[in-house]
Amino acid sequence: MSCNTNVIHVQLSSVSDAQRVPVHLMPCEIEHNGPAQVSQYFNAATKDCKQEKTVSFRGRGLMGQELCCPQGYTGMVLKEMNKPGSDQEDRTVKVTSVFDKMTYWNLETPPNPDDRVVMAMDWPELAEAIHGPVED
Amino acid sequence: MAAKKKRTPHVGNDSWVVIAADSAVDPQQPGGDPSLVTLRNPSTGAGSLYMLSSGDWRLFEVKAFEEDFHSWFVGQAVQRDGKLLFITPMDPLYLILPYLMKSGIEAQGKFQPADQVVMDEEFPACSRLLGCTRSLASLHHVTEEKEVGNLKFHRYSQEKTLSWLRKKVERTVAALKKRSISVGEGVKSTTYIRAKPEWDYSQEDYLRYAHGLISEYISEDLSKALYKHLELPEISSPKETEPSSKKRKLSDKSVEAEEDYTKFNSADFARKPPKKMTAAQKSLAKVDKTGMKPMSSFFSPKVKMEKK
Amino acid sequence: PSLMDLSPFESDNSVSCRLTSPIPDACRAEECCLGIDEAGRGPVLGPMVYGICFCPISRKDELKDLKVADSKTLTEAEREALFEKLDEAKSYIGWALQVLSPNTISTSMLQRTKYNLNALSHDTAIGLVQYALDGVQLKEVFVDTVGPAEKYEDKLSKIFPGVNVTVRPKADSLFPIVSAASICAKVARDHAVKHWRFAEELGEADTDYGSGYPNDPKTKAWLLRYLDPVFGYPQFVRFSWSTAQTLMDSRGVTVQLDDDEEGGERAAQRQNSRSMLSYFSAPARGDNPNSTGRTHRFFSDRRLRSLDTL
Questions:
Q1: How far apart are the first and last CA of chain B?
Q2: Span C178-221, pLDDT tens digits
Q3: Which of B69, B76, B168 sits opposite A35 (nearest CB)?
Q4: A15 touches chain B (CB under 8 A)
Q5: Is residue C59 one of the residues assigned to a domain?
Q6: What is the ipTM of this complex?
Q7: Average pLDDT over residues B169-188
Q8: CATH code at C105?
Q9: Total structural domains within chain A
Q10: Going along C40-100, which residue ranges are E strands?
Q11: C115 lies in which domain range?
Q12: Chain A residues touching residue B67 (CB < 8 angstroms)
């Protein structure tokens, strides 16, 4: 567990260099971090009919849907550039990619308003109610 | 097939997918880059991650959406960690309130300057909370104020706090209705039959649900007082102030079964291991508490329950 | 250039597609026999094709004179030539095909409620007979089988009570109408494999994949060459074949899904609670065990929780 006195700095200057990229939330754990031929294998084979997208991954049928970031919100991917050697040092993350919509995929089930990630998008608006300033 | 392989532990993640309020990550913001800091979570009493931006003017909460077995494709790369972090605006007063309540008792009704109250050796960053524009401007919601010269002094007021929290609950009720959030019992799902159809929720259902949400940010005692203040009908156990979800029932079971570890080998995957005290809670337990309430008592009920 | 037009399948080769000849008037007017056979059951690559062929019972001898034989004993060119003969006889011979894309086969066999190849084959055959029944006066059905013949015969007889069903192993060499069906299916399979249009952007894909049978060295070499560590294979490959799975296991990235090795009941349980595993691995994954306890159901329903660190 990290020390409570540690601070993680978010370098926002990196936003200007950040690429706008497609992001997909996959319904499986892929035990890998790093490059992959996503556009060649995944995006190229994705079919778009009406609201629903279909594709297969490793022989499993997926059904997906696009989700926009809530209004007033931006999607970004933060990356820690140089992990400090000790847990006493401050850390720094920078913005490597940005997005304003994402595609989430279900394993074999059609996208549905009860999907957890869709429900999770309720949070920013509720947070505004819980945390917004109260008038006298 | 690949699936039969054992799941390898996931360590050393260095990349996170985030959805952040524009006000948190505006590169033009004055006061330099935002920073993520650890502060005492009013709900758990332990440290949680928050973000301070615009030179500490604004506070944000960091919450993780995470389901088992998920990963990301980000552009032309795989990111194994499937969490989605939400960075949403946070009212700093929720984090300051436990310190004000503690000092209200320890100073026996004396007025005190805020910067002498909002101090925490364990979470030194908490003093930065007073830098938030909203903090000093909103202290009057929860304290009585006295001004002597240029200095302001504060004394915690439960009465004022409760009427502030009532407004919070009302705002929350409005937002729940606006987003048509199911406030009935059980998981909202088309595959289950709902206890009540959505249009049948009473004002009381909404109030109780909103009270439960606000209670995530205040101590148990204050949550109970707020419940009364809202004139919600008495329920025998405070646990039932919010109807328990399936998950909660299962975790309650685990408390009863704490001694029977053999059952962990059975098929019941839902059971949780007994919780351990964090270092913070242990050190709190050691402090000589004569004449003062422990900090933890101003936070959630969870810590107290685990201490037995 | 083949007489058979596969363009409806080729326009989307990720799904199952039905191709049909016109139904001859003779088949509407007279009692008919119908043969069923398949092509490409064993290969790890490409589609599996189910074919039916039908003609009036009174013209069985004319069909015999066309000298259609078991398609496996013929070369590709010979099969193509025989299909031309069948096409010339279209005044009394009709056919229909169901092309099951490799993607359909993979996703069916691997889906949460497993759909095995036999069930898929039977359902496809039944679908084709049903199609024929809609126009053709069907009296006799002859089926080639790889599974136990009797059970399949009972099953088909029950589904099609007015029809005399004969299920036989090696029916394609016993009954000319089954041989004809076999030729239609094989021609379609050959054509589909030869002209496969990859949905994936593989550049100039090497099409020298041999017979497609797992033990063919050319097929093996192709499978090794086109293995992507993350995605495994293009949709041309049947992911449900052990050859493909073994290669992905040994050379690919491990992928974990939430329904592996457990029944639906446990998967449903998991919907409402996190697995034991996730609690054990919690510290490494940055979980705060304190925050997973009594959170309000707004958050637990949405799988939202606080973090103690990044």
A1: 47
A2: 999 999 999 999 999 999 999 999 988 788 899 899 999 999 99
A3: B76
A4: yes
A5: yes
A6: 0.88
A7: 84
A8: 3.30.420.10
A9: 1
A10: 48-56, 94-100
A11: 6-195
A12: 116-117
